[in-house]
Model the fold of this input.
Amino acid sequence: MKQQIIDRKDEAGVANLIEYVMISGVLMLLMVVMMLMVNTNIMEGPADQVSSAAFTDIGNGISTRIVDVYVTAPYNGTISTIFDIPDDVADKDYFVEIGQGVKPTNQDVTVWRGYLSSTVSLAGIGATRGVKGNTTGRGINKISYDSGGF
Done:
């Protein structure tokens, strides 16, 4: 009886191919997971920080404009002013609401989008004049005062 000799060189080529396919598959899976994490941690985090700072600046600017209208408001009559705020922050729209603050005598300017928001005090005029309204960043915005009320 002759003993058959198996040539192991042919099996080495297949083993190398299987190893290459398995390692490539694992690396592709890790690459997909990394790409999903990069969007959340590297891109959205800094954009949210910039948006929060921009919302505070926008709220301060609107608060200042409202106080300016209040200071120059006539005893009898109407006054209006138009102003422009940034159309978007980090390529996304946002909303501005002026309303009652934490204390009933205070009023706040809240600038928000989704889960991000910034609240700025309306510089203490809430106790003397009721201010309310809302807007977005798009277009030209208007602040109006009428001594008879709206």
Remarks:
- The first strand starts at residue 78 and ends at 83.
- The CA atoms of residues 95 and 136 lie 5 Å apart.
- The chain is about 45% helix and 25% strand.
